[in-house]
Write a structure and sequence with these properties.
alpha+beta, Alpha-Beta Plaits, four-stranded antiparallel β-sheet, two-stranded antiparallel ribbon, globular
């Protein structure tokens, strides 16, 4: 299952995130998105876990969990085409 994590602290590294998540599930892929202009984390990450059961467990366990004073938001990631369709529907 692919997950989207938002509102991470900007100083949170991939290693920090991996350590937190691996307490709850097996990580297949993890990538924190970078802000090119600022040269630091954008506070968002994509994660792939071993299966849907682990993904749902991770969402339940960590959605709203505070990391360095900031609540992180964990949800199932959607394919880009679906996200674009949602945005297009909202704008017109």
């Amino acid at each position: 299952m692919k997950l989207f994590i938002n509102n991470l602290p900007y100083v949170f590294s991939e290693s920090d995130l991996r350590t937190l998540l691996e307490k709850h599930c097996t990580i297949i892929y993890l990538k924190i998105m970078m802000d090119r202009k600022a040269g630091q984390s954008s506070g968002r990450a994509f994660v792939q876990v071993e299966n849907d059961v682990q993904g749902r467990f991770l969402i339940a366990a960590l959605n709203g969990f505070k990391v360095k004073g900031r609540p992180m938001y964990v949800s199932e990631a959607h394919e880009l085409s679906r996200v674009q369709a949602i945005r297009k529907g909202r704008s017109g």
